[in-house]
Amino acid sequence: MSTIGVLPTTEQQASDFERGALFADLKYRAHEHLLSRIEELGAEFGRWSQASIAQFVLLELDSFIRLHSIAVNEQEALIVARALTRELTGLGPLQDLLEDPQVEDILINGHENIYVSRGGMLQRVSVRFKDDEHVLRIVRRILAPIGRRLDESSPMVDARLPDGGRINVIIEPLAIDGPSVSIRKFRKDPLTPSELVQLGTFNEDICRILEMAVQSRCNILVSGGTSSGKTSLLNALANFIPESERIVTIEDTAELSLNHNHVVRLESRPGGFDGTGMVNIRDLLRNSLRMRPDRIIVGEVRSGEVLDLLQAMNTGHDGSMGTIHASSPRECLYRAEMLAGFAGFQGSEVSLRRQIANAVDFIVQIGRLSNGRRRLLSLTEVTGMTDNMISMQELYRYEPSIGPNGQEQDHWVSLGISPHSSKLQNWWRMQQQTHRNA
């Protein structure tokens, strides 16, 4: 198949070859040759299976290498053949990354700089595109089935992928150094609370409190930064909702995947080029109140919908939940207050704080540590108003300890305070009685 004998190719050699100029040049030239052959085949090619296309690529590449006396061994030729097959049947350089279950995020900063997140840690990968036009060709192939436009007149796209993931793209003239692509992948089987305990996100004591808080219809906000695990935690908390209840989820980009029998999933819609046809989170939230929900879950509170969510929580829709971007429980309340102000809240500052204090029962703060691990940092209860300020009490706090081997170990400190919420009083008394009897 090549002009030299079959030589063993190690994983490192294969990686070096894929980064080299020979690989890029051969792939480009062979791709042009394949496109010419596909044009000759016409409609017949479109009826071929993926296996048939892979065999076609192997045969054509073998002929091309022999014809042009290109010095590659058989293993290197196979690497090029796989790359060309991905170009014709899949998503080119992105295909393997999208199929890798360990990859959480794929970040493209121009055609030469590709990073992935594994276990919460970013790392650069050897995957390369030929040029920025190659990136755009693959991105448009991703966007085509969902009918989203990407060109100079519409240079930004944020969309949900058919597999539940999310893609954000920004191109020239807004992105100066080439196309910027961010792909967030989601697990096909969302994490359950017990799996989060096994992963060390929180301990069993916290899990029991969260379970009873959800089952007792407490209103909960999950607070944290970008990529801290807010959506995964919110998804896990929904596992505690009784099967007999009707849930309405509202999101900008549908990411929640609830393991529940009765779920109505709503997703906002961006406006057209002239701004018409837009349906935002606030519109959906207002409409959901007419849909007889037992629970309302808002994927992310980021604008005026905070007012409608607070009103829903205060007017009989107990057990509602949502996420919010904030760095601490106190900042979470400040942000809710700020968003309500931006949305045109007409009352006084004190009345707004009273409404927040009456609506929210618990704030669950989650964060991503420097080592990439995602941990529940604080479980805090909102207890009411004191001197015109919202008062809170922290039930659990994350304080890692140093083990005998010098490594950091997860540890949550219980502050020994019983929940104040009347919704949990009966449950807490039962817990205390159980501990005394034990």
From TrEMBL:
Gene3D superfamilies: 3.30.450.380, P-loop containing nucleotide triphosphate hydrolases (3.40.50.300). GO terms for molecular function: ATP hydrolysis activity. CDD domains: VirB11-like_ATPase. InterPro entries: P-loop_NTPase, T2SS/T4SS_dom, T4SS_GSP_E_ATPase. Residues 88-366 form the Bacterial type II secretion system protein E domain. Belongs to the GSP E family. PANTHER family: TWITCHING MOTILITY PROTEIN PILT, TYPE II_IV SECRETION SYSTEM ATPASE. This is CpaF family protein.
